[in-house]
Amino acid sequence: MRHRRRRPPVAVAVLAAVAVAFFVVPLVGLLQRAPWSELAGDLTDPVVRDALRLSIVCSVGATALAFVLGLPLAWVLARTDLPGRRLVRALVLLPMVLPPVVGGVALLLAFGRRGLVGQYLDDWFGITLPFTTWGAILAEAFVAMPFFVIVVEAGLRSLDTRYEEAAATLGARRFTTFRRVVLPLIAPSVIAGAALTWARALGEFGATILFAGNLQGKTQTMPLAIFVELQTNLGGAIALSLVLLAVSIVVLVSLRDRWFPA
Amino acid sequence: MSLDAVVGMTLGPLALDVTLDAQPGETVVLLGPNGAGKTTMLRAIAGLLPVDSGHIVLDGQVLDDPRTATWTPPERRSVGYVFQDHALFPHLSALENVAFGLRARGIRHRDARERAQAWLERVGVGTHAAARPRGLSGGQAQRVALARALAPEPRVLLLDEPLAALDATGRIATRRELRRHLAAHDGVRVVVTHDPVDAMTLGDRVVVVEAGRVVQAGPLADLRARPRSRYVADLVGVNLYRGSADGDGTVRIPDHGELVAASDVVGDVFAVVPPNAVALYRNEPEGTPRNVVAGTVEHLDVEGDRVRVIVAGPVPVTAEVTPAAVDDLELTPGTTVWASIKATEITVYPA
Fold first, then answer.
1. CA gap B327, B335 in Å, rounded
2. Based on the number of CB atoms within 10 Å of its own CB, is B100 exposed (0-12), middle (13-18) or buried (19 or more)?
3. Mean pLDDT confidence for A71-94
């Protein structure tokens, strides 16, 4: 026999409905204004096309950076008992709560031409990061990498260490063990972490505009282009917004098993 | 080729201090209750845990010795380890699991697969080469785990409760086979178990570990004939008493009365009475037996075609009788009985 759920009190139900409406109404607003017939034309506008291309380059670049640096970091946090691990974890997670604009200022002061590290990059190697595509990638990675690190660290923690021990007794060195045993077994976490990181990088605005500026074809990613286009070309802004909305929905749906277990 | 392990470690409440020697071609069984430190001992030998004090020496090569800061990581020890619930790599097929150790030691892909297939056939799961661990039964997984550990031909083979994960039917067949495969491995074999039947079937020599210490070691027959602790006596199923003997055969058991044995040992002694040498009567018997003790039946345990009758009294004793005798004597918990033991059936040895 099924248990009948009790109905919520009226006041709670009303407030919950308002909350749902609060999330849904803006989406409806966006969709009802969408110039569906001119969408193809809007998306081929040079500003929009550059923004699309740059967004893909920068978000994929930031995700790759998160993989290369974040995977070892997640391993250190999950599998070693290095002193100060808790502090390191707190520092890594800081960009998740820090306003991205503050992150942008901090990046500028560190990697800008006169910055703490940036002046040496410029003097010794002739490398300039701010206001370049590399700068945009760096800004996105700064903000998005924490997602990768926490998801992969959690995946490593939930992996039974006996698989690594079994590999070691079979003569596998630690890197072989990681590549042939650990990585395949935590692949779902790595994919989920990468997807979240990529989605966050794709939407990055504050840190990017402060550190990399807003140069069409160089650092003007989709969110920046939307901000600019809103004042001159509403159709383009809506078209780009729809693209980002579609991407968000795809990421949400593909990760549903992980975040919304039935 | 031999293993010399002296392991001193503190892990939470457990203070481990165990010495283990093993020769090639010999199976040493570490027998003891759960939490005695048996698995920790295996992990130390494999290099999965460093010892706090002591040493691990294999064929004269020091693998672990904190005094000289010597430590060899597990991947550079020639050790095969069969984990308690197998720890087969879930993302690899049975064949790839077995080939893993060969590949890690630099054997080429194709050769490794051929040798892995031969190992799978040798342990009787050749037809399951393509199966993932999740598709294998407990017995099949156990065989794959054994093949995986044996394939790189380690000098030491360590097995942690190899039969614990199997059900009763699979257990008997697997135990017999395991004995055969162990005999075919020419290195040192160390098996951890809490089951005396496993110990008896698999081991040439038994080291009994209790609360991190060795309480007795030797061939199983010696353990059976001369147990030196309550735990070992219970394992092999005999009555054990500790008392003092004065040389004329009388063994005084503090707080429990005395037994008369045909023995001239003097001093602090153990006395062992096999339960099948204990006869039970409803009325006080007359005649030759020197030892007759009264008591009440506390409990009856049916074990196959035998019944173990636990009798509480001044000298607590366990008797082993036939089910027919239980019926004849109308034995139930609470029944008053007399237990008689012939003096010649009691083994007395110095404690």
1. 12
2. buried
3. 92
Domains in chain B: boundaries: 3-230, 237-350
Beta-bridge mates of residue B7: B18, B54
**Average pLDDT of chain B, as a whole number:** 89
| Eight-state DSSP code of residue B111 | H
- Whole-complex ipTM: 0.82
How many domains does one find in chain A?
A: 1
A15 lies in a domain? Answer: no
Q: Which of B48, B100, B148 sits opposite A165 (nearest CB)?
A: B48
User: Chain B residues within 8 A (CB-CB) of chain A?
Assistant: 46-48, 73-77, 79-81, 83, 87-91, 100-101, 104-105, 148-149, 152
Contact B19, B44 (CB under 8 A): no
What pLDDT shows up at residue A2? 57
Tens-place pLDDT, residues A132-151:
999 999 999 999 999 999 99
Residue A165 to residue B81, Cβ atoms within 8 A: yes
Q: What is the CATH classification number for the domain harbouring A124?
A: 1.10.3720.10
- The CATH number assigned to the domain with range B237-350 reads 2.40.50.100
Under 8 Å CB-to-CB from B109, ≥6 apart: which residues? Answer: B103
Task: State which residues of chain B have pLDDT below 70.
Answer: 1, 287-289
Nearest CB to A184 within list B73, B91, B105: B91
Q: Which amino acid is at B262?
A: A
Q: What is the mean pLDDT of residues A221-244?
A: 88
Superfamily of domain B3-230 in CATH is: P-loop containing nucleotide triphosphate hydrolases (3.40.50.300)
| Section A20-48 average pLDDT | 87
State in Å, rounded, how far the first CA of chain A is from the last one: 21
Tell me which DSSP letter residue B225 carries: H
